[in-house]
Amino acid sequence: MTTDVGAERGRVAVIGAGSIGLGWITLFLAHGYRVRVNSTRSNIETVIHDALRLFTPGLPGASRDPADLAGRLEIEPDLERAVADVAVVQENTPENLEIKQDLFARLEKHAAAGTLLLSSTSTMLPADLGARMDNPSHLIVGHPFNPPHVIPLVEVVGDTTSDPDAVSAAAEFYRSVGKTPVVLRRPIAAFAANRLQSALLQESIHLVREGVVTVAELDDIVTGSLGPRWATVGPFQSFHLGGGPGGLRNWLGTLGSGLQQGWAALGRPVLDEDTLDLVLDQTDQAFGGIAYEELAARRDRLQKAVLAAVASADDAPPPRSGS
Amino acid sequence: MTTDVGAERGRVAVIGAGSIGLGWITLFLAHGYRVRVNSTRSNIETVIHDALRLFTPGLPGASRDPADLAGRLEIEPDLERAVADVAVVQENTPENLEIKQDLFARLEKHAAAGTLLLSSTSTMLPADLGARMDNPSHLIVGHPFNPPHVIPLVEVVGDTTSDPDAVSAAAEFYRSVGKTPVVLRRPIAAFAANRLQSALLQESIHLVREGVVTVAELDDIVTGSLGPRWATVGPFQSFHLGGGPGGLRNWLGTLGSGLQQGWAALGRPVLDEDTLDLVLDQTDQAFGGIAYEELAARRDRLQKAVLAAVASADDAPPPRSGS
């Protein structure tokens, strides 16, 4: 069974209203969906309205009126009623396998057959999440990067238990709210983007631990080189261009020969107490004096500007022959 | 002895005019320096004028006239004459230790005492480069990220053989041409940025090898998430904000507990023939149909736009208490 969610702006249920849930709510509303929120927070209405005011300036494109968005918002504390007659459920409950397994078993009972059941989990696979369901075929991971209303990527992860049409429908749904879904070709622990991030963080902590740079200097290195590079072309195209007109083949023939040796020399830090203290102290020194809200607002403002700049400078993107 | 190169726009010698050398020449000229180029290329004058036309649109800030830049250019095929009466030498010869050791021994003879002798090497340390010099105290690595006229970072690397004042003067010189120098607190093989890049590339190749994503999909993941994130805030500030108002301390207390386990699960691919074939085939499919010049021009256009967007959106950067 396929689920056509892109053709009309129907109703989406969002379960859980932490920072990820609130980002999704803002984004789905901004793209014309009616959003029904199911949350255990007592002051949920205030929380959402605050989030809409805080998050709408970060949305891509023209500025939006939070009040317009709120017009399509419904609060429904009862799970059964929350997921009745919706095309899509996006759940954002805590990263706890028991909680999520229970939730999906209940969703299966209350949602219509064919409803897309999407999880924002960053750590769990669909087959595990659906272990208590009779039919987990429409349970798909849709893992956003934080904040979900700003960063384009959504990793769409199916499993051996998944209906391929449901995987496609999930990707289509995320495209309908302006996201860049990438469907993983097979499930893997921690998915792709967080594995890449973890690999870079491991070497970052090694360099700080070895006294080569401080936390603040490490950040300056990345925002001054790899960040702007990878905001525009990915690692493979980067290396392909690094090889000059001969491309990646040429690059691997010259500098690339040292690649494998370089990997062997990368750090394998241990997160012992001394290392944690060092990293935390330097982080406090670098950023501790500035309020969270101020840093987060700056991050969102800059990320929105970067994404808009790439889109605008890329008005004539070159065709791509592969996928 | 200190070398004050920022106070006046003096004369800089650039040795070697491959793609890195040409980027430096463009940048130094654009910032008002007289640039004396020493190169073995027979058609060097044509090569430089072509590069000035190609590279000036990528320079940060207002548009420049390549002809204005060329007015401060001198070609000097004789090394002795090329480095006489210059404040700074930036060498960009091939990554060959013998060649560079010979070069620095000759530079020591011909350049005035106190001349900053800077190397663009991405792999060698000052103590090794200066092994044939009597006094290598002013030999400092100034490693740019490609392309040097676009990407802000320069890694400034001294060694046990270096005069700390020469290290400071090198950083000051790079600041005088609009770069973001980061001085490494101690020398380390491959420096910092390429180690970070290598760590991420290792996991990228693992994910392609395992069939989780294709080369093109891996690039989409990075340009859709980590790139825009790290173009604005570095890895540590990113994690600090990921912890919410509790900061990195909070993040390490929740998601961070899985960090060390995650590192153990990262891939350790072997660059055997099958892996290289897979990566090269998918790279050809993704980018092989588009001319190098077109891809490189797009990369430079987008990177310039990204850097300008960050600078412009960051008109009121928060103060930083640490360095």
TrEMBL record, chains A, B:
Under Pfam families, the record lists: 3HCDH (PF00725), 3HCDH_N (PF02737)
InterPro entries from the UniProt entry = 3-OHacyl-CoA_DH_NAD-bd, 3HC_DH_C, 6-PGluconate_DH-like_C_sf, 6PGD_dom2, NAD(P)-bd_dom_sf
Q: Which SUPFAM superfamilies is this protein grouped with?
A: 6-phosphogluconate dehydrogenase C-terminal domain-like, NAD(P)-binding Rossmann-fold domains
All copies of the 3-hydroxyacyl-CoA dehydrogenase NAD binding domain together span: 12-185
GO BP terms, alphabetized: fatty acid metabolic process
- Gene3D superfamilies the UniProt entry points to: N-(1-d-carboxylethyl)-l-norvaline Dehydrogenase, domain 2 (1.10.1040.10), NAD(P)-binding Rossmann-like Domain (3.40.50.720)
Q: In which pathway does it act?
A: Lipid metabolism; butanoate metabolism
Q: Mind listing the UniProt keywords for this protein, alphabetically?
A: Membrane, Oxidoreductase, Transmembrane, Transmembrane helix
Q: Does the keyword Flavoprotein apply?
A: no
Q: Which family does it belong to?
A: Belongs to the 3-hydroxyacyl-CoA dehydrogenase family.
- The protein depicted here goes by the name 3-hydroxyacyl-CoA dehydrogenase
Please name the source species: Frankia casuarinae (strain DSM 45818 / CECT 9043 / HFP020203 / CcI3)
